[in-house]
Design a protein that fits this description.
This protein is an all-alpha fold. It is built from 13 helices and no strands. The longest helix is centred in the first third of the chain and has 107 residues. It is rod-shaped.
Amino acid sequence: MASGGTSNSLNRSVPGPSSDFHGFEQLSHEIETLYTYWGPTFRTIIEEGTHQQFLEHLEQRIRSHDRDIERLCNSHYHGFIDSIRELLLVRSEAQDLKSLVSSINKDLQLELTSVLQRGDEVAKARRVEANIMSTIDQLEICLPVFKMYQKLQEQLAQKRYYPALKSLEQLEHNYLPHVARYRFTNHFRENIPKFRKQIQDSSMSELKDFLENVRKFSVKIGELAMRHTGEEVYNHQVGKTNFKMEPHNPFDTEGEDPQEYLPDEQEGLSAQDLVDFSPLYRCLHIFTVLGDKSTFENYYRKQRKEQSSLVLQAPSNMRESLGGYREYFHSIVGFFVIENHLLYTTNGLVSKVTLEEMWATSVEKVSNVLKTQTSYCTDSGLIQEIKRLIMLFSNTLTNYGYNISHLTQALLEIREHYTEVLTQRCFHEFQEIFKEDNYHPLQVRNVDCGTEVLFLARSG
């Protein structure tokens, strides 16, 4: 009955066998062509109730396809067999080829291992070479810095502080900026202020030594300056006289040669030649470059002011002999000759105004010392020698542009004291001479006696 119902349904849907066959073919074709969505096809078959007939149709279609496959295989069987045989031959050749390729691969791997090792060595060598070249390039950049640093160290060791300061400036501004990325430049930059401080302290130490040497040499400088002045006066007097007799040098006590007390190597030298002023100039330049010139000037002026106070103090043995006066005058002349020299050789270290003020104060003190010391002297001969020495002292300072009006006033007072001493000593001698003298004119026997008398009267 089921089959009958199905047959009736098919008969309703499909009127005849021919139409059923075409319907099943269409459904089979849909199934073969649609791989995923078969729902509508199966629903149509189930709704029509022709699933049994459709299955039979599928069986027939399968058998038809099998026959087609069998027919196709029969037509290509011999070709297939030949292909299999060829594949078997190719298989053996492929195995031989595989063995050969494996052997070549092993050999190639061995060779490549050596090549790769050599390649790594070459690459490593190239890297080392590149590093060496880079290192050489950087060393060529750094080498001038180290040379300049070594030069700076040598200049400091040799106490060449001004060139060392110049080298330090070049190192800081010209060399270190090129190697700023290296850590050692930090060490150099940290040491630069220390080097400047070292140079400044060493220069100040040299200045102190210079001031001490100047204080020691002031006496010798003053002596040499006064002797040169004495020579000038002596030569001037010799040139002006018309007498054949060689006149006595009034500025040279006891008639000695002005060069007698000078060593041979000091003959012809100026007062400034006895002192090496280069430490002072170097120190001045160094402090100027360091921007601390005022500190240097203040220190120098303070020290020289203290030295001037010591120079102006009268020696303890001054009133006892002429040597004390000489030493006193020599030290003062030496001090102011040095200051006068620095006035023209330094830029503002010694100014004309300050030097004149210092001299004005000093000459007043000197005048008071001379008045006091000579007031205790009762030897007319010593007073006359002191007067000559004061004249030489005054002429020497006048040659260097110093005002000696106070000394002139002191000489007038010394002259008055000298007159009093002579009056006291020679009063009785004059009385006896006046009593014994017959007041006749002086008679000379020949020209030589007359010349001698005239010379004595002139040198009087």
